[in-house]
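Sample log: Serine protein kinase, PrkA.
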Amino acid sequence: MTGEIETLADLSKHYKDSVPADLREAKSFEWYLEEVYADPKIARNAHQRVADMFDFYGTRYDEDAGVVEYLMASEDPLHNGENVFYGREVHESIHEFVNKVKSGARGLGPEKRIKLLLGPVGSGKSHFDWLSRRYFEDYTMRDEGRMYTFRWSNLGDVIRDQDPADDVVTSPMNQDPLVLLPQEQRDIVIEQLNENLDAPYTIRNDQALDPASEFYMDRLLAHYDDDLESVLENHIEIIRLVASENKRQCVETFEPKDKKNQDETELTGDVNYSKLAVYGESDPRAFDYAGAFCNANRGIFSGEELLKLQREFLYDFLHASQEQTIKPKNNPRIDIDQVIVGRTNMPEYREKKGDEKMEAFNDRTKRIDFPYVLEYEQESEIYRKMLRNADVPDIHVEPHTLEMSGLFGVLTRIVEPDSDTISLVQKAKAYNGELDDGDDIDVRKLREEGEAKADIAEGMDGVSARFIGDEIAEAIMDATHRGRSYLSPLSSFTHLGENLETHGSIPEESLERYHRYLEMVREEYKERAIEDVRHALAYDIDEIRRQGEKYMDHVMAYIDDATVEDELTGRDQDPDEKFLRAVEEKLNIPEDRKDDFRQEVSNWVSRRAREGTSFNPQDNDRLRRALERKLWEDKKHNINFSALVSANELDDDERNAWIDALVEQGYSRDGAREVLEFAGAEVAKSELEG
């Protein structure tokens, strides 16, 4: 433990500082009116408050992906990054969700729709929903997100049949205090609020008081001869309202239960049987406002696995979304104000999609697709986050391990390309942003083809990050039990391959295809392992710089149709085409594209020269890779690759130097030995075959 130990006094102070100063204070209606005139946003509705919440924690525009990222999802400041979301597709979905909430805030229609998050299992839709609720709770604790409700007091002084236990009654629906004003007077206040409001929306509130509050208001107005001021001064206290899912206050989750036991009163509330003997059956004071829609008022309603509910039960959602009211059994309608979010998986959606009897429900639903991540490096960050958030054994994760696991996941999710000119792995690399300037690949067209061919959308099927994360965890524990201090791609491939058949969510008809994809990933890793070993065995910075300068001298001479001085004789000669092509072929640049590449590199050098930056081939990724591979070709004939497989056949100093070079690339020493043997065996085999 580092730092000073927190005392109880310290902890108490931290807590007190985190609580709104006015949380326990009761204020007058006059005070509330002054506050809301000064800050009209206090009177926002649920969609407006939730929309502002997303912006409050910050936004960032990702120019590369062309997507707005909300920092609560891309950085998670409240939880030190523990719940960060990765992947362009996921942030696009979050942005689409927020846009629908913002449209609802403006009264454009989505406020009367269910926001349905649709995606495969493990795509993160439930976690995003959970995170939104946590941030809404936090936002309402802050001045920027504050909201208020009211409670009735001293009721027994006027209403003689009032139960003494009910002398003070908090607004059952946590309504905004403005609803205490009759609509005509309320509209006057709201008009003045909107004159001072700095927001893209306008304040609206045409809700009726809940039935119990309506009862109290009628009785009190009758007592005070319709003197509204006396009613509000003597019997209304304004209190701070903070969202809390644990308290079922402004945030509520609802999940399907056994169909036989499902009851609509779970949504709309029911009779409070303990009050029946006191008030009688038809008295609104005998109603228990404990339904999920009641609890979620002023905030967020979250419906888990929404489409698993019976069709008849979903009808309650029609009124809740479209009419923004609920109609409890044997009770008047009750106005509600909340963002209704539903979640569902693919099988339930497909089943309900073609059901004509679900047409009305579907029409009141705004679907937001929540796919799997389709960039494998972003996918690998999900596994990295998983390891950060867990008590991982002291084990070293070798280079490419998480990325190759992510590549396998992405291959199962993307649609195979139509064109024979690009492979599935190349498509995954294109989605990952691995495009060279000379590559003739249109990523937008690939995405459009994928969306057109997919059943619902690309990324809505395949292997989940949850499954792959579980296999990585199992591979880590297996390595620990075997006394191995590292986790390599080879061991993760083994666990993925062995457990595909045993995973319940993977269709049997997909198994053969997934095993084929795993072999593709093995081949991709083989190339990367050989590249790493190539770098370790043949890397020479000075030689690469010298070869790079030579290449550029000959390229410039070629472009200018000039000669170049021979290094040995000092005589002028034509550009060495054989040398130029030897470098370019290492990048698979065909003869008919060589001029494009040479001009590209020439432009790059000229641009850097204008900026005052000297030439260094290390700064150009494509040129560096080409020169490294050329150097490898020149040196590999002096390396005994077969000896790499056996430690006994190599000089220890030479082998240790290679291991040190791999350690500099991020390998552990044991992992470096494994990749040396693996890549050495593969190169030796290819040399024999060649």
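Observation: The chain has 29 helices and 18 strands.
Observation: The mean pLDDT is 90.
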